[in-house]
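Data availability (excerpt). The following record was deposited with the supplementary files.
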Amino acid sequence: MPWKLVTDPIRIRPGDQLKVDGGPAFVVQRVIGSWRFHTEVITAEGLPMDIRDTDYVAIWVEDAK
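Predicted structure:
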């Protein structure tokens, strides 16, 4: 169950578990909006977060086995 690099923040969806720039993992509750170079989300804790294409973003990927 590895972390995988997100190359396009516009593909982020509710329910995704993410890490930004090596910080703590969080779950996306809602996507507020997506623009060309960034996406704004609300975390499961209710905190807003702006994710830019220059950030190192990783998504948790369930093992397909």
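Summary of structural features: The CA atoms of residues 19 and 42 lie 14 Å apart.
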